[in-house]
Design a protein that fits this description.
The complex is a heterodimer of chains A (223) and B (280). Chain A is of the alpha+beta class and 223 residues long. Chain A is built from 10 helices and 5 strands, in the order ββαβββααααααααα. Chain A has a 5-stranded mixed β-sheet with strand order 2-1-5-3-4, covered by helices on one side. Chain B is of the alpha/beta class and 280 residues long. Chain B folds into 2 domains: 119 residues, Glutathione S-transferase Yfyf (Class Pi), Chain A, domain 2 (Up-down Bundle), CATH 1.20.1050; 144 residues, Rossmann fold, CATH 3.40.50.11810. In chain B, 45% of the residues lie in helices and 11% in strands. Chain B is built from 14 helices and 8 strands. Chain B has a 4-stranded parallel β-sheet. Chain B has a 4-stranded parallel β-sheet with strand order 6-5-7-8, sandwiched between helices. The longest helix of chain B is centred in the C-terminal third of the chain and has 17 residues. Chain B is globular and about 55 Å long. The chains are: A alpha+beta (223), B alpha/beta (280). At the A-B interface, helix 4 of A face helix 3 of B. The complex binds FE2/S2 (inorganic) cluster (FES). FE2/S2 (inorganic) cluster (FES) binds next to loops of chain A.
Amino acid sequence: MNEVTVFIMGKGYRVPAGLTIMKAMEYAGYRLTRGCGCRGGYCGACATVYRLKGDYKLYGDLACQTTVQDGMYIAQLPFTPAERPAYRLEELQARGETLLALFPELARCVACNTCTKACPQKLEVMDAVQAALRGDIPGVADLTFDCVSCGLCTMRCPAEISHHHVWQLARRLNGAYLTPRAPHVAQRVEEVRAGKFKGELDRLVAMPKEGLVAAYKARDIEP
Amino acid sequence: MKTIAYFPGCALKDQARADETGTLGALARLGYEIREIPRWNCCGTVFSLVQDDLMRHVGPVRNLLRVQAMEEEKVLTLCAMCYGTLARSAHFVEDPERLRRINAFLDPDAYQGGVEVIHLLTLLRDEVGYERLAAETRRPLNGLRVAPYYGCVLLRPRPFAVDDPDSPAAMERVVEALGGTAVPFPERTECCGTHLTVTRKDVVEERVGRILRSARGGGADALVVTCPLCHFNLEERRPAGTPDLPVLYLGQLLAWAMGEDDPGVASLVGRAAVSSEAVR
Ligand code: FES
């Protein structure tokens, strides 16, 4: 078997090449109950930092998405503590000042770009901080749409910004106040209220189990 | 068309949006193709006086790097604060050792140096020129009495002054070229209090009151500024009893004179009914 040596929390292990960092840790005997979620690169629970032999850089990535390399030094970050002030969305205004009032650390950004380099999703994180600073809420929402809240940028930021909480607020403000309303949603809610689907639902509720199973098997599946 | 790289800065994209639109419109009429820097970041607002904490200098230098990536040699700002920070940074990294160390932060990119930072006022004076400005004026200011207010960052510190720090004249000449009457006044190079507006409103109010009284005393109908922050302070931090003097951004006068719409200038010049359509 083709194996590589990795160091997990400073101890060396031989693991099969081609495993992800997460699988390699499990292969080495770790049982992951935190710092592990979807295993598909979506939930952001599995932030990991590593260094490669002979390379001065500290890298960050998602453990479930990154393949081990020979001589990798690995540490798992189960969680990045980050401050999130309490707010009520209905009481906020969709303006730059709102972001700055709740997250004043934003103004400490020195545009060092460390956050961007840390992002496993390859987002332009610093650009999003800058957009927040100039009150461009749709810009922040756009730039951070694919953020998985893994916390790696927050861990490395010299300005101590809690990035993913800022992004979440910006996306909420954008969704609540700045994005045009979708008229078909209201229309559908009206249709539901008016009983458009009532007959069909009643039919399903009254159906015996065998009928339900047969209907489930015969259902239309979207491609 | 002459292309020029453009650094807007945060204020012009947020509270001072109105100052940007007309100015860029006027510059387009003067034959400039404005190329906004893609993905610019905040200039830093104040130039860091810390010499050895180089990370504080990375932000402004990154903007210069992006100008370099656009293959432009100059970058235009409309804001005096941005001008001050960027021009001083450009100078700071003329030292090769500092540049080397800052580039280590910018890795894998590297700034080569040599980008020149200019402000709207110097563009009008050095590149457009007063004569052409006068010749291109479609809607003169009708002798409107305007007091040019320089504030500090365009003139201090001395190595970065865009004009004689003690008796500047560029803005007066621009005002006259556009058909206005320049009203010089003693406080025209005093600082407005800049970012103390956040922590020490009292200091800013005291200065703003003094500046506006001095300009009114000289007989001005309006004050003209080169900086969105001065603009904000001079409008929003007036102590009680301050003369009710309108404050305009330099680009607004330019915009109006070149035929762009500007309601603020329109009412002052007393020709509010003339729309920009009529002069096109
Ligand atoms: S476990 Fe969900 S992103 Fe890796």
